[in-house]
Hints:
Radius of gyration: 47 Å
Strand order of the largest sheet: 1-8-3-6-5
Mean pLDDT: 81
Bound molecules: zinc ion
Helix content: under 10%
Number of helices: 1
Low-confidence stretches: 1-21, 247-251, 253-283
CATH architecture of the largest domain: Sandwich
Number of domains: 3
CATH class of the largest domain: Mainly Beta
CATH topology of the largest domain: Immunoglobulin-like
Structural class: mainly beta
Number of strands: 18
Amino acid sequence: MKKIISFLLVAVMLLALATSAFAAEGETVEITVSAKGNPGFAAYQIKLGFDAAALELAAVTEGALSAGGMLDVNNAEGLVLFVKNGANIEGDGVLFNATFNVKGEGNYDVTAALLDAYNEALVGVDFELVVNVVKAPEHVHEWGEWVEIKAPDCDEYGVDQRTCATCGETETRQGAKPLGHAFGDWVDIGNPNYHQRACVRCDAVENEGHKMVELKELEKTEEIDGFLVTIKTHKCEVCGYTVEGLDKIPLTGDITPVVVGSAVAVIAMITLAGYMLKRKFAL
Length: 283
Ligand SMILES: [Zn+2]
Ligand SMILES: [Zn+2]
Ligand SMILES: [Zn+2]
């Protein structure tokens, strides 16, 4: 007995599976539409929902649950009609497989709605439709411009990031080169060996030995405890650090210069030792 199906909207079930977004032309979307909670049907009409600008329904083939029946497909409308005479089809399983060709950019989601279903007694029945994506187009990211999300500092690279306009995924890469330290001027920090400069951006400091030069005009001679003592003044031509003392003030900063008070005593001893040595050899 041939069944006439009046496509009344008894039940509409929508199920969407995301296969969102952007794919290359020539790719396909393949889905299966299954019945769940099937009370036994003999006919159904299912409407596939899809973005016609992005997809075209290329083929519908029967699944296990539709074996032995008659499938009629309106590809443009996405309508799938199934009729089987003889007995109700029981149980859950795959009703049909559908393949879509990608036409262009857009939404690649596919939905399935059960417009109508009947059993052998022409009584409307209802069941759930489950759409499973077998093959989705490979997503091709639509990357935006690289944006600096962390600026470089003295010794670390910055970080750039870009975002896919379609799926929102982000990607980072090494950003701008480290800037290097931005040192200020050399400063006298009271250290007898070196002057120092600091980075204006971070807390890095750098030391460098004084570049001592003798200030001839400040040289003076004093008589101390019967010895003639020459006191010379040296000044760092870079930072201005100044010290009075012996001629042997280190120029590289490795040796702590002798300052005035003790210098007098030291030079006195050296002069005395030299004097005694001379006398010894003179004998
Ligand atoms: Zn993406
Ligand atoms: Zn720095
Ligand atoms: Zn200096």
